[in-house]
């Protein structure tokens, strides 16, 4: 071979090494920020097709629940962090006892791995959450009915762990549906909560550095279809400035209360009332609701996460445009990887479309990319981002 | 090993592969753009310490003048492009005959590899260039003196090939200096040109896609010290709008005239007159004078270069802030890599400082990173960017 592959790059001394467990699109986009900051990103991938593996020089193979693999992976990293919630907090605690610096730490992770602990902790600390109840073993249906009687149908049943993108969440309309669901979930830990009547769904991303410094981005509106986020509008349109400020403070206080280091996404219901926000979900990492920051804010959530876990000062979270809209590109019928790539030139005909493709293996409903569009007007931004995504999906009628 | 290194990532079908010869900071920053666009970037590195090698999954080893190596490297890439000017145009022509798509192509590259050809071609096409003359072999000193007598001292002597960052360029003040230089350059091809009295130095970056589409960024001012660019101010302050428009048109016309595909940097003298611009240097790739685009424009020069060489539509080159200032971080005494990394938190205390570190082996005078600062005012942006660089260099008096 005249141009053989390089075995291993040689870094200058003093380069910080951040190890990220998981090699999905969040790790992939973190690499863009790591390159700018001069941070060396090492990722732990499950397989060669993990999409961050294609863009990093330092990829290790191993499962996120395999203590030996994660231990081996963490050797030599300055900070260990996560692209997902699948590393059990107990495993992280083991690593910490061995001297690994994990951010967020094992004391914070349970609140994103166990939704019941999250509800209990937030409620105990006075944060607004839906009413909820844990059914007694053997009395699940009875307790679910009693809860609905105390509140109202429908109710929401949530798996204690493992849910995301609408999985692990069931809206239960009536007694018949409740009976069916309770049967189906016989082997699962779950709890029930009120179905919050909301005007819209919103989110705040906040970063907390290892130094304690906190910075939040403005409140955004998130639009979900079938439990999957399809659109984010930043900032959330038609928002009372006091409410917007209150939402940021709420998110900052949760980050402090849970001693989060890194990014925290706080997904909330906006009920439209005087105290409009009710906390729905948390994520302790860069999150889909913050992808707009890559083009719409001075500092992206990925850069901020690295700065936070390294204990560096946080970057400016100001807006760079009056409106930024993020639209997700989901896999589906006719949305194979090669077809998507062939449609890029058509999608980029709008010169302001900011494309972010993940190079993931495509599955129906799977997030395989997103576009951001900055504009002066919400409607225009929504329309332009939607058009680009429809073109990439082959739904514009011409391709 | 519990978490063994991954041998090779697996990409989904249809992913475009761009091969970049050279693995310096331009390739490194191109990788950030490639990640977003879903483009697979393969780089040809000279050694394991090349700074793009640390951030790519597909690094091959070989020299840019080694036909077999570049041929092997180019196998399977959709487009071949360059991080520097060191691949001889004749070698690229050989590759093209073998079916490789090189952008810019072998017909365009001579104008950045041979400054005399560049001067001749631009002058023949009516573009403004300094007066110049090629000395006759054996009559070098005589011809240089005659040229100065026809114009004025000082004159500028330029090596026909190989110069950059002030190397290969000599300002000759008088006859004595001329005699010394002519002796010293006995083995080098050179020519002489007038020393243009300029108000300031400026540059325009322009992209030309394989489709023929052209987009330029606004005119910027470049500040050089010892022949090395230290500061770029975008847009160039206090510029007559007609002059600014004229500079863009000039750059666009050169890109067309030379049939450039990819990025073209046109460095010019601004003489302050009615037709103020005189072309100094060209580069056919992303260029230091365009680093400000990473934070100051909707589309960065690195993304634009990829879009251009892939024949995709070009992105919006609008400004994202009233002023963006780029300040280079140069290596020097006390500016070792580890020391620079230890000073990052202090430099980032200004939350609007956008850091770009290359993780290069540090040498005195070598560009090892840059910062961008966006602001409403030129003076403030210059001051903030300068402060960050001084802190990183350990020159702020406290570290």
UniProtKB/TrEMBL annotation, chains A, B:
Pfam families: ATP-grasp, PurK_C, RS_preATP-grasp-like. It catalyses: 5-amino-1-(5-phospho-beta-D-ribosyl)imidazole + hydrogencarbonate + ATP = 5-carboxyamino-1-(5-phospho-D-ribosyl)imidazole + ADP + phosphate + 2 H(+). Keywords: ATP-binding, Ligase, Lyase, Nucleotide-binding, Purine biosynthesis. GO terms for biological process: 'de novo' IMP biosynthetic process. One of its GO terms (molecular function) is 5-(carboxyamino)imidazole ribonucleotide synthase activity. HAMAP family: PurK (MF_01928). Homodimer. Belongs to the PurK/PurT family. This is N5-carboxyaminoimidazole ribonucleotide synthase.
């Amino acid at each position: 071979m005249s141009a053989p592959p390089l075995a291993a790059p040689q870094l200058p001394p003093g380069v910080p090494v951040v190890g990220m467990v998981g090699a999905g699109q969040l790790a992939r986009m973190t690499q863009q920020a790591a390159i700018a900051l001069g941070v060396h990103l090492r990722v732990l991938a499950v397989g060669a097709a993990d999409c961050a593996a294609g863009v990093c020089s330092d990829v290790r193979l191993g499962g996120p629940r395999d203590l030996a693999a994660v231990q081996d992976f963490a050797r030599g990293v300055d900070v260990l962090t996560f692209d997902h919630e699948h590393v059990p907090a107990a495993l992280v605690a083991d690593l910490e006892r061995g001297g690994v610096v994990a951010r967020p730490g094992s004391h914070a992770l349970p609140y994103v791995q166990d939704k019941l602990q999250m509800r209990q902790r937030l409620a105990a600390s006075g944060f607004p959450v839906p009413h909820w109840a844990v059914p007694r073993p053997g009395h699940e249906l009875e307790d679910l009915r009693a809860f609905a009687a105390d509140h109202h149908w429908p109710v929401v049943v949530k798996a204690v762990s493992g849910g995301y993108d609408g999985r692990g969440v069931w809206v239960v309309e009536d007694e018949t549906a409740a009976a069916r669901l309770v049967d189906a979930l016989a082997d699962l830990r779950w709890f029930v909560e009120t179905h919050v009547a909301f005007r819209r769904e919103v989110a705040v991303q906040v970063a907390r550095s290892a130094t304690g410094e906190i910075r939040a981005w403005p409140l955004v509106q998130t639009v979900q279809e079938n439990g999957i986020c399809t659109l984010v509008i930043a900032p959330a349109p038609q928002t009372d400035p006091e409410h917007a400020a209150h939402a940021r403070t709420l998110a900052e206080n949760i980050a402090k209360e849970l001693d989060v280091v890194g990014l925290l996404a706080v997904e909330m219901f906006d009920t439209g009332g005087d105290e409009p926000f009710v906390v729905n979900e948390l994520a302790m990492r860069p999150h889909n609701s913050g992808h707009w920051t890559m083009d719409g804010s001075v500092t992206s959530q990925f850069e901020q996460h690295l700065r936070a876990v390294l204990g560096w000062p946080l970057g400016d979270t100001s807006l760079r445009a009056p409106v930024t809209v993020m639209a997700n590109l989901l896999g589906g019928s006719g949305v194979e990887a090669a077809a998507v790539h062939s449609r890029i030139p058509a999608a980029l005909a709008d010169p302001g479309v900011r494309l972010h493709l993940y190079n993931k293996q495509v599955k129906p409903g799977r997030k395989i990319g997103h576009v951001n569009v900055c504009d002066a007007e919400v409607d225009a931004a929504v329309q332009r981002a939607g058009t680009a995504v429809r073109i990439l999906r082959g739904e514009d009628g011409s391709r």
